[in-house]
Design goal:
The complex is a heterodimer of chains A (about 90) and B (about 110). Chain A is built from 3 helices and no strands. With about 90 residues, chain A is mainly alpha-helical. The longest helix of chain A has about 35 residues. Chain B has one domain. In chain B, about 85% of the residues lie in helices and about 0% in strands. Chain B is built from 4 helices and no strands. In chain B, α1 packs antiparallel against α2 and α2 packs antiparallel against α3. Classes of the chains: A mainly alpha (about 90), B mainly alpha (about 110).
């Protein structure tokens, strides 16, 4: 059963990667990356029990925290960049 | 008793896998950014709950279950927050809801 769930999660991660490659906007890519990170945490938890090694749960917990901070940091970067661009446009025009 | 718990956790795991898969399909196939976000964020929450509770039933009362609860709480706090921040950033930067063809031409 763990194997079926982990294969489903792996297929979903592949679909998210395809969405990240297709775009079209930067927010679609961020959505795909965020989804990929959450699915990575789930996959790590399932694999921990698939192979009977509960140590993997620590990795999953650390990855959940890092993924959240990473997504927020990249979002903040793009948001401030687009605001700066809009301000430049107003100043220039 | 043990087999009942097993069956329940298998049902939860299968439902979680199905939710996760449908979410991936929606994020790939839906036409608009906000519809994709809807598919991805909602199934993120539901799939996470189902899969982690399913594993938790298999783990029983142990340290692994406590770690799984920590992961679940962490994901349930961060995943909607990240989704909200993403939608907010997209809306502020001028991604229009609906009319996917115009959005594609713009980007």
């Amino acid at each position: 059963m763990y194997l079926v769930v982990s294969i489903a999660i792996l297929i979903t991660m592949a679909l998210a990667l395809v969405r990240a490659l297709l775009g079209p906007s930067v927010y679609d890519r961020m959505l795909a990356v965020n989804m990929f990170g959450t699915k990575t945490v789930l996959l790590l938890s399932v694999i921990a029990f698939l192979y009977g090694r509960p140590d993997f749960l620590d990795l999953a917990l650390a990855y959940a925290l890092i993924n959240f901070v990473g997504v927020l940091a990249v979002l903040e970067f793009f948001q401030s960049r687009s605001i700066r661009r809009a301000a430049d446009r107003v100043d220039g025009g | 008793m043990q087999s009942a718990v097993d069956v329940l956790s298998w049902i939860l795991l299968a439902a979680g896998g199905a939710f996760v898969f449908v979410g991936g399909l929606g994020a790939l196939r839906l036409p608009d950014f906000y519809t994709r976000m809807h598919a991805a964020s909602l199934t993120d929450g539901m799939g996470t709950i189902l899969i982690l509770v399913g594993i938790m039933l298999q783990a029983g009362w142990s340290l692994a279950a406590i770690k799984l609860i920590a992961i679940l709480v962490c994901l349930l706090l961060t995943s909607p927050t990240a989704s909200y921040a993403l939608a907010n950033a997209a809306l502020l930067s001028g991604v229009e809801p609906g009319n996917s063809r115009a959005g594609k031409a713009e980007n």
